[in-house]
Amino acid sequence: MEFYKMHGAGNDFIFIEDFKYKIKEECDLAKKLCDRHFGIGADGLIIVRDSDKADAKMIIINSDGSRANMCGNAIRCFGKYVYENKIINETKFLVETGDGVKEIEIILNNNNVEYVKVYMGVPSYNGIDIPLNDKKQLIDTEVNISGESYKMTTILMGVPHTVIFETDKEYDVKEGYKIEKFNLFKEGTNVNFVKIKDKNHIRVNTWERGAGATLACGTGCCASVVVAKHLGYVEDGKIFVKAPGGELIIEVLENGVYMSGPAEFICKGTVI
After folding, report:
1. Record-annotated residues binding substrate (predicted)?
2. CA atoms of 192 and 66, how far apart (whole Å)
3. Is 125 a domain residue?
4. Options 27, 34, 77, 217, the catalytic residue
5. 60 neighbors 15 (Cβ within 8 angstroms)
């Protein structure tokens, strides 16, 4: 089985093509391949397949074997992968995900992929969409978890994301573990600790549901900008988001959220 390994701002993924649907135990395979000691090592497994709804289909499975509907860094890597491997020959195309069909644009510089732009869709504060237990929404609300009080906002940005601003103190990203599994969230939540640098720049550290602390989270950066704009912390226009592994550019427009950022090839090989 041939594989490619790629990363988007340090968030790394293993890519495998499966157009003939030969892979049956997808979640077990993800756990095996993503293990950083006994496997290749990655934050997730991406399976490339044909789609009857779009130009290609992206299956995402986290390193712990759980499925994800959407991943911002993964879909940028996916866009570069299918373009450079000539699965798709256009620079604008559609990708089917668990969160619906996403629009991809490949930005070239001297015929090389400079970065990838993705339409990420429309966020939702609706507690049913997220989903939340016994709450219609959670916006800038104090929540006590294991003796610690957090002022948090939770939205659905393809997957559930909780945003916590570091206004009075900085948090260890590992605190996201207890928030991820808190009983307020029916299906768990990703957790983003956000520092406002100025009206156009923020810093985001993310604890990802099913993967732990990662060097970047595309949907998390999008969610953080959406909430920061909603609460008046940032201006309209492009917001530059610094994650531990690199920088993304997020725009919140009337029709939804756009994310732009890097996608890099690491290596390729064969799994026996």
Report:
1. 11, 62, 72-73, 190, 208-209, 218-219
2. 20
3. no
4. 217
5. no
Whether residues 170 and 92 fall in one domain: no
Whether 117 maps to a domain, the answer reads: no
For residue 111, say whether it is annotated as part of any ligand binding site. Answer: no
Q: Is 217 designated active site?
A: yes
**pLDDT tens digit sequence for 212-267:** 999 999 999 999 999 999 999 999 999 999 999 999 999 999 999 999 999 999 99
The verdict on 188 and 217 lying in the same domain is yes
Alpha-carbon distance of 74 to 70, in angstroms, equals: 8
Q: Say whether both 95 and 178 belong to one domain.
A: no
Domain assignment present for 132:
no
Q: Is 34 a catalytic residue?
A: no
Quote the strand ranges of 9-158, DSSP E. Answer: 11-17, 44-49, 56-62, 67-68, 92-97, 100-109, 112-121, 138-145, 148-157
Omega before residue 131 within 30° of 0, cis: yes
What is the CATH number for 219? 3.10.310.10
Reading the block at residue 262, the tokens are 């890097």
**Residues forming a β-bridge with 156:** 124, 160
| pTM summary value | 0.92
Q: Identify whether residues 234 and 170 lie together within a single domain.
A: yes
To the question of whether residue 220 is assigned a binding role by annotation, the answer is: no
Specify the amino acid at residue 197. K
Answer yes or no: are the C-beta atoms of 60 and 98 closer than 8 Å.
Answer: yes
Q: Any binding-site annotation on 11?
A: yes
Instruction: Find the domain containing 169 and state its range.
Output: 138-254
